[in-house]
Design brief:
- This is Spermidine/putrescine import ATP-binding protein PotA.
- With 385 residues, the protein is of the alpha+beta class.
- It has 2 domains: 172 residues, P-loop containing nucleotide triphosphate hydrolases (Rossmann fold, 3-Layer(aba) Sandwich); 122 residues, Nucleic acid-binding proteins (OB fold (Dihydrolipoamide Acetyltransferase, E2P)).
- The protein is built from 9 helices and 19 strands.
- The strands form 4 sheets. The chain has a 6-stranded mixed β-sheet, with helices on both faces.
- Strand 12 and strand 13 form a beta hairpin.
- It is globular, with a radius of gyration of 25 Å.
């Protein structure tokens, strides 16, 4: 941690905002029955209720048109809610203009002033707040040091790389000690390697400073890597709100299972449910067991969800109650650390297995008939998608 980051964090601690006290339930940011419509009829955000804890990194994740960016824009003040209330630290901000909300904002296109130097870009929000010259200079220096750009204050944005410009945009959002920073697809314009590097930089900076971050992305890997919790949006509603591990390992419906990570699906009908076990007759005729999630009664259509890494070819790695099912190899791909095998299973030609490359596996050939298996608890019986 840099000396600058330590000083910044200590300053927050002196004001009584201890990082250890920050929980996901203290309601630093709240959406209470918030709706948004642009035409007076069709809702793009539908009765949103959401509480974000002080110091939390919450990501709004979803496909285009799901409502996530609209929620961020309402929080920033660039859009107004059609119905409901948004509060910041217990105070309604519905009628407070954006520049008076004290919220830092990082955009995908950086939004830096091209005619200003880096230092002047950072000083601008401080000048708007009528801050004195000496204090402005001290805060600009500290913010640049936070993002390891202290030597670039005299350059103009056009003289910086994309990653450097993104660091400056982040520093500008932090320069006036904003306790809440909003980020709208901030890494979308960067190449893959730099984007992944910046994910960890932002994550570590958040951990060091203890600020609250609300982050919008459609990139599921980004959301899983950086977030304390992720709100998965679709059709104007939150489909599931949970820590990354829960979203991936325990999706609550078919949409989340399909949207988060790679996922195998098999269609079927519930025959019986007893406790934590549902017996499912697949449409191809096989009878399997699965963990019932949002299905409740016999005769109900269901989608079975199984993660590729939970499926085994080596039967010695399976528990005694594992299912074995016939499969035909369609494609075998070497990917370095893993092998990716595409199979035909129970009528599904897109069933995928991911196997760790341990150095002793044989190469599977297209057309080869094999048996695969998985533990019943790794198969989740979800709503029919």
């Amino acid at each position: 941690m840099t000396d600058c980051a330590v000083a910044h964090m200590n300053e927050r601690d002196k004001r009584g905002r201890y990082l250890s006290d920050m929980t996901a339930n203290d309601g630093f940011v709240t959406f209470d029955r918030v709706q948004k419509s642009y035409d007076g009829e069709n809702l793009v955000v539908k009765d949103l209720n959401l509480s974000i804890g002080k110091g939390e990194f919450l990501t709004m994740l979803g496909p285009s048109g799901s409502g996530k960016t609209t929620c961020l824009m309402m929080l920033a003040g660039f859009e107004s809610a059609t119905h409901g209330e948004i509060k910041l630290d217990g105070v309604s901000i519905n009628n407070i203009p954006p520049h008076k909300r004290g919220i830092g904002m990082v955009f995908q296109n950086y939004a830096l002033f091209p005619h200003m130097t880096v230092a002047e870009n950072l000083a601008f929000p401080l000048e708007v707040r009528k801050m004195g010259k000496d204090e402005r200079e001290a805060k600009v220096k500290r913010a640049l040091d936070m993002v390891q750009m202290g030597a670039f204050g005299g350059r103009r944005p056009a003289q910086l790389s994309g990653g450097q410009q993104q660091r400056i945009a982040l520093a500008r959002a932090l320069v006036f000690d904003a306790e809440l920073v909003l980020m709208d697809e901030p890494l979308g314009a960067l190449d893959k390697q730099l984007r992944e590097h910046m994910q960890f930089e932002i994550k570590h900076l958040h951990e060091q400073l203890g600020i609250t971050v609300v982050y919008v992305t459609h990139d599921q890997g980004e959301a899983l890597t950086m977030s304390d919790r992720v709100a998965v949006f679709n059709d104007g509603r939150i489909q599931q709100l949970a820590p990354p591990e829960d979203l991936y390992e325990r999706p609550e419906n078919s949409f989340v299972a399909q949207f988060i990570g790679e996922n195998n699906t098999l269609g079927g009908r519930i025959e019986k449910i007893e406790g934590d076990v549902a017996e499912v007759r697949l449409h191809s005729g096989e009878l399997i067991s699965a963990f019932p999630v949002n299905v409740t009664q016999p005769g109900e259509e269901t989608t079975i969800s199984i993660r590729p890494e939970r499926v085994e070819i080596d039967h010695t790695r399976l528990p005694a109650d594992a299912h074995l099912i016939d499969a035909e190899v369609l494609e075998w791909i070497y990917m370095g650390d893993i092998f990716r095998t595409r199979l035909r299973v129970a009528g599904n030609d897109q069933f995928v297995i991911k196997s760790r490359n341990s150095g002793d596996q044989r190469k599977l050939k297209p057309g080869e008939k094999i048996k695969i298996g998985w533990a019943p608890m790794d198969a989740r019986a979800l709503d029919a998608s």
